[in-house]
Design a protein that fits this description.
Length: 332
């Protein structure tokens, strides 16, 4: 990092701590910066959104790379994603490592766990590229698709979580293209915790804030009861992690005075789709993902008919998933 940004980041850690900063983690991200820059450049070029839906998934199968994954070894004759049997969380719980390509089992991988809302949390393995892409590029893609232009401010993104097992942390952007990334912890049952988080945001003025719907509800209620308190209005507020209702979005935009951008994703394979500035539905992101909608029997339903969302994704090289039944409902 150049000296001035390094001093600014040191000041962030000093003035807004305690914030954890893992030097080794960030150095690994810095070494992968050229890969991250290229992935973001390709995405921004439109390669991921225009006429490329599912190309990477089908290439993964066509080139027989699925044969390197123990879970798919018995499906050697499958020639397209639609020929594979369905998977669900029970399959992942029964043997998550079977979805890691054999060549990657001895390499450094990150492990994330699903939320556990539908049963015992499932460990998901992340490749280094996918781990850092998820952390440093996801919100940039969401903001770009929503037509929010970064204005150069020092903190790019502040993620608010209510997971008490997480630590507050901060990282500079390893690509040196935007401001810092940080995470803060909010206890939704404690108004003092909410006050501290909002005061911190008012001081840091991040370009983007990310929340899940339950946290957004806490912020809306706090602001409704304290309309005179100083409140930071970020150019982008991203809501994901659960269903965002129309009523909550309308309340948030009216009471908080910020545009809310909806995104859909899974711990298992990252963000799958997000809104553009017209908020008329979510755009599936890139060629690494195939999305279909099926009925209870597993048959594909017609367009605009509701059913279960099924995802195939090879974006995460350490955990490719083919025909994964998410348990979520949606229309295509």
């Amino acid at each position: 990092m150049p000296i001035e940004p390094a001093r600014a980041f040191a000041g962030l850690l000093r003035d807004h701590g305690p914030l954890d900063f893992d030097v080794e983690e960030w150095f690994l991200a810095f070494k992968l910066a050229p890969v991250l820059k290229e992935r973001f450049r390709c995405w921004m070029s439109g390669a991921g959104l225009i006429g490329a839906h599912g190309q990477a998934v089908e290439a993964f199968i066509r080139e027989e790379r699925h044969r390197e994954v123990p879970a798919y070894k018995n499906h050697r004759d499958c020639k397209s994603s639609s020929q594979f049997p369905f998977l669900d969380k029970q399959d992942l719980r029964a043997g998550g490592q079977k979805f890691v390509p054999e060549a990657l089992l001895s390499t450094q991988l990150w492990v994330k766990s699903t939320s556990g809302t539908t049963g015992r949390p499932v460990p998901i393995y992340y490749s280094p590229e996918f781990h850092f892409e998820s952390f440093f590029l996801t919100v940039r893609k969401i903001a770009a698709l929503a037509a929010a232009s970064y204005d150069g401010r020092e903190v790019y993104c502040a993620a608010i979580t209510d997971n008490r097992e997480c630590k507050p942390f901060a990282y500079p952007d390893p690509c040196r293209q935007v401001g810092h990334f940080l995470q803060t912890i909010l206890d939704g049952t404690d108004s003092e915790s909410t006050r501290r988080v909002l005061d911190s945001l008012a001081d840091l003025r991040p370009f983007c804030v990310t929340v899940k719907p339950s946290i957004l509800e806490v912020l809306v209620e706090y602001r409704r009861n304290r309309p005179d308190r100083n409140f930071h209005r970020p150019p982008v507020l991203v809501c994901s992690g659960a269903n965002l209702t129309d009523a909550l979005r309308q309340n948030a935009e009216a009471i908080l005075g910020v545009p809310v951008c909806n995104a859909y994703g899974l711990t298992e394979c990252g963000i799958i789709a997000s809104e553009c500035e017209f908020h008329a539905g979510l755009h599936i992101w890139d060629p690494d993902v195939v999305v279909t909608i099926v009925d209870e029997s597993g048959a594909c339903v017609p367009e605009s008919v509701a059913g279960e969302i099924v995802v195939s994704s090879v974006r995460n090289a350490a955990f490719p998933l083919l025909r994964y039944r998410t348990g979520d409902l949606g229309t295509l």
